[in-house]
Amino acid sequence: MTNHVHLLLTPTTPLSACSLMKGLGQRYVQNISRTYQRTVGIGVRPRFQRNPDKGLTFLRYLLTYITVFAIYNDLRK
């Protein structure tokens, strides 16, 4: 599946990850609007999910999920 990415971020401030995702979303919408010559912004539902520190067990699970997901999709090509 090449239509999404997983990001594991360590923000320097509590809102820096949110600001990053907001900026990426705005650039994406601008690019789509330019490409398809739209003058009205398109509605993009928020896909960014913020999961504050849930402990080391969750971090290990997340790293395993990201790694296995990448390997699985690489093998399917």
Produce a short descriptive summary.
The chain is mainly α and 77 residues long. It has helices at 16-35, 56-75. The chain has 2 helices and no strands.
Features:
77 residues, mainly alpha, 52% helix
Task: Give structural notes.
- The model has no long low-confidence stretch (mean pLDDT 77).
- The longest helix is centred in the first third of the chain and has 20 residues, at 16-35.
- This protein has helices spanning 16-35, 56-75.
- The chain is mostly helical.
The strand count comes to 0
* Major sheet size, sense and barrel closure: none
Q: Rg to the nearest angstrom?
A: 16 Å
Count of domains: 1
Strand fraction equals under 5%
| Apparent shape | flat
Order of SSEs? HH
The N- and C-terminal alpha carbons lie at a distance of 9 Å
The quaternary organization reads as single chain
Average predicted confidence as pLDDT: 77
* Individual helix count: 2
Low-confidence parts: none
Structural class based on helices, strands and sheet pairing: mainly alpha
Helix content: 40-55%
Topology (SSEs and partners):
Blueprint lengths: L15 H20 L20 H20 L2
